[in-house]
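Q: Here's a chain of 136 amino acids. Please give me its 3D structure as tokens.
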Amino acid sequence: MTELRISRAARLLGVSDDTLRRWIDAGKLSAHRDSAGRAVVDGGDLARFLSDDARDHDDPVDRGSSARNRFVGIVTGVRSDPVMSQVEMRCGPHRVVSLMSTEAVRELGLDVGSLATASVKATTVIVETPSDTEVR
């Protein structure tokens, strides 16, 4: 069973330790004490909490899509030359970078501060796990 300390679970959720503690106090998520007496959240409980969390309502794209890996965020950088552009976004705690035509950037009206959704469709997704010392 994976147990995550409050600070680590809060970082994974993209919230402060205090916010996570308030959620625990409100019964939205459960925590218990580990063998060292530290407050921890069960990894399975955290996964269920994330699965039940309906954050997709913030998606500004108003149409159906087969893409399930969608990240709503704010454009934090646009670097363009006459043909290609690099668009950087912050989506919660994640940095997403896309390379696209400069024409597409103009058509979408992408500027620093724009609200946008990054849809990721990949045939290869690499999954890595932390060492035991990094989990807590």
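Q: Can you summarize the key feature?
A: Residues 43-52 form the longest helix (10 residues).
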